[in-house]
Amino acid sequence: MKFLEVKPIIDGYECDSSLQQEILYPDERKIIRHSWDDDLLQKFMASQHFSCSASSEEIINCLVLLGQAWLDRKFSWRRMAEEWLPYSTGFSSEMITETLDITFREFTHSKLSKCIPNNKTDKNYTTLHIQAGNIYHSSLFGVIYGLLSGQPQFIKSSSQEPLFFWLFAKSIIDVCPQIREMISIAHWKGGDLDLENKMLRIFHRIVAYGSNQSIKSLQTRIDKQSLFYGFGHKISCIVVPANISELLSYCPSITQDISLYDQHGCMSPQFILYPRNSEVSVNVFADRLSECLDECQNLLPRGNISLDESLSIMHQRDLITLKRIKDDSVYMKVSPDSSLWSVIVNPDENPHISPLNRYISIFLYSDLEELETKLNLFKGYYQVIGIPNITALENDYKVLFNNLGVCRICETGLMQKPSIEEKHKGKLNPAVFEEEIKMVPRDGIEPPTR
Amino acid sequence: MLKTSVDLDAEILQIISKGYDHCLSDDVFNHLALDLFNYQYTHNLYYQKYCELLGRKPSDISRWQDIPAIPTDAFKEDCLSCFPSENAVKVFHTSGTTQQLSGKHYLDTLVLYEASLEGNFKQHLFPDLERIKILSLTPSPIESPHSSLVFMIDKIMRKYGTDGSGYFLNNNQLDIQNFLKACISDEPILVVGTAFSFVHLIDFCTESNISCFLPSQSRIMETGGFKGRSREVGKADLYQSMSVLFDISPERIINEYGMTELGTQFYDNSLIKRHDSSYKDIPSWARIVIWDPEHQTPITSENNPGLIRIYDLSNRGSVIAIQTQDIGYKVSNGFEVIGRMGKAVPRGCSLDTDDRLS
């Protein structure tokens, strides 16, 4: 039996052993994780010695080295991530391998250089990242922006997935010790309001991911002097414009969008809007998409899901089958004898949320007006809209998408692969934020779109 | 050759009449189940279309386990019967609020329903008595003519109820004063009600500091889910509160698992002494499959949770195989119910009564 000890990475401070929490993995290995208590918090508050003398160029070079290390399949922390993250995330090993590659390929000198803030930042400005549980590295790019600003970054790991940021921090100690003091990882049990309120008060900036309810709860408890960026519920979808040539050739890239992270992320498409007058009938499109999803299962298998999740998929499929009894236009292709993937064509319904885990519904639209009506059902909640052959997108569509407040519009196949250098509100670049909102105090600011 | 409803009813009735614990071989069950499937596939056109969409027809099926199970939601979609709806002698409605569609179960005869109900109920609720005083925390059949729960309580009360039996939910209000008076008795009492009616009763008695001790040898039948729109109570907590309020040991509280879409009900066997541990018995004319939604196969091992799928011969007029939205697991010769699946719409008689009380 191997033991792995996880400690908050603040030199010189140790937790009382009574605060240890054990996470038992299915193969009986344990992670021992330390919780924070009041004493440790006091010590932390009294010792914010996060001065970093490294220049921006030095930090970039550090991060490039770090990225290269993580792309090396033999790198010890990566190997540990590949071995253990399937347990903590529920994603397949292949998914972990693929998503680590996608993520760390962004750590290039040219891309990171573009993330350096244009204006001078206060290096003592502290940021707390409250990591969500659905996507194991969702705070990572935000942390990188913070590091590039020379500012200390503090991460509260997710209860569901506490491992990745711990491994990441360990890798920094190994690969680029000169910035080791800029990053701290801790975990405290949700619900301890007293401790949590104290933690929230000591940071200049707080970036949180989670449900709308969690975000609102946090927002009301944060000190008025702090900046708060809350990222609540978001969804993504794919819009197929009319008259796309070679439409079926886009099915593999659409499959990538659906399959990466098993639809658990906010950048995962939950439905497809398809033109009624397409030269390729929607059922032919659904058949091809089904084939691609089936093939994808060999390369990028879906993770195991809970009983509740598979029940939810089965229930939705049952309802669709009942609907098909009375409506011939409803069409369904699903993985045989499993819940691995589902493609549903539901022509007359309005778009609705997917039960996830590679369950995609296709809804139809006749014209731009109907498309707008259907998209408006989730106005303000769109993270990414994926478009096949975006370069040929007509201006009318662009205008429509702009009005929806979508954070990002991209080619299909890239929905889950945002580039680190893209500067938009959702990318958590502190410099961008601060330029745009002029350091306005938290009160009255709605959580920005990401 | 396709059997007629008369033939099928006679065969099924013969099996039911031998008692819930009659050892019916799987071969006999299989034979009759396949005949019934063939009959229903032919006469129940909605079910036929459902089977066709799944790519299954009687000639392809040789095991009862492969008969397509229709989701309970189907009862909300159409008249799911093997006869014209105008020929129904009874129509049971599923509970449903204004936001939800109500399902309907049409019966062209009550013979199978009543046969399935009576012996099974008596053997599990009062195997030691010929008759018993029944106090029902439900509306009367006059007030709730489409409730299958109320119908079955009425049948039992008429056949086995002693003087003083009655209903104590009138005009959406628990008649607590008269219920408390009726509880003062020299003879054992059977109190029947939904989980929510007991919650309301417990809340009232606790707030009013009233106790409601039942006579010795009394028992309770509780039915319905534990989640809904009023106060949510866990089963263990509810039974503990009931035990204290009624001064009755928890093993004398029997949970009934039934639904409008079924002719057969399932009861805890804790009052039947021959069992070492309590679980729900499966009458000889029914079968339970715990279904793995991930792999679309039955779960054969004990204690592994899955979706409860019921094969019920007494459902001759509708569909033999029902896919419930309840999670349970196999145990010994029976099964246990854990609760409703997470995303499912709350349903059941419990909600109906709760609607009235809230």
Q: Rg of chain A to the nearest angstrom? A: 23 Å
So, the CATH homologous superfamily of the largest domain in chain B? ANL, N-terminal domain
Identify the CATH class of the largest domain in chain B: Alpha Beta
Order of helices and strands of chain A: EEEHHHHHEHEHEHEHEEHEHHEEEHEHEH
Cα-to-Cα separation, first versus last residue of chain A:
42 Å
Count the domains of chain A: 2
- Classify the helix fraction of chain A into a percent range: 25-40%
If helices are DSSP runs of H or I spanning 4 or more residues, what is the number of helices of chain B? 10
Supply database-style keywords:
heterodimer; A: 450 residues; alpha/beta; Aldehyde Dehydrogenase, Chain A, domain 1; seven-stranded mixed beta sheet; five-stranded parallel beta sheet; 38% helix; globular; disordered N terminus; B: 358 residues; Rossmann fold; six-stranded mixed beta sheet; disordered C terminus
Give a brief outline of the structure.
The complex is a heterodimer of chains A (450) and B (358). Chain A has helices spanning 38-46, 56-71, 76-89, 93-104, 109-113, 140-148, 164-175, 193-201, 212-221, 251-259, 282-299, 307-326, 368-375, 395-404, 430-437; strands at 3-6, 20-24, 30-34, 127-130, 153-156, 183-186, 205-209, 227-231, 235-239, 269-275, 331-334, 342-345, 359-365, 382-387, 408-411.
List the SSEs and their pairings.
The complex is a heterodimer of chains A (450) and B (358).
Chain A: E1 3-6, E2 20-24, E3 30-34, H1 38-46, H2 56-71, H3 76-89, H4 93-104, H5 109-113, E4 127-130, H6 140-148, E5 153-156, H7 164-175, E6 183-186, H8 193-201, E7 205-209, H9 212-221, E8 227-231, E9 235-239, H10 251-259, E10 269-275, H11 282-299, H12 307-326, E11 331-334, E12 342-345, E13 359-365, H13 368-375, E14 382-387, H14 395-404, E15 408-411, H15 430-437
Parallel strand pairs in A: 1-3, 4-5, 4-7, 5-6, 7-8, 9-10, 9-14, 10-13, 12-13, 14-15
Antiparallel strand pairs in A: 2-3, 11-12
Helix pairs in contact in A: 3-4, 3-7, 10-11
Chain B: H1 5-17, H2 26-43, H3 45-53, E1 70-71, H4 74-77, E2 90-93, E3 104-107, H5 111-125, E4 133-136, H6 148-160, E5 166-167, E6 169-170, E7 173-174, H7 176-183, E8 189-194, H8 195-208, E9 219-223, H9 235-246, E10 253-257, E11 266-267, E12 286-292, E13 297-298, E14 306-312, E15 321-331, E16 334-340, H10 349-357
Parallel strand pairs in B: 1-15, 4-5, 4-8, 8-9, 9-10
Antiparallel strand pairs in B: 2-3, 6-7, 10-11, 12-13, 12-14, 14-15, 15-16
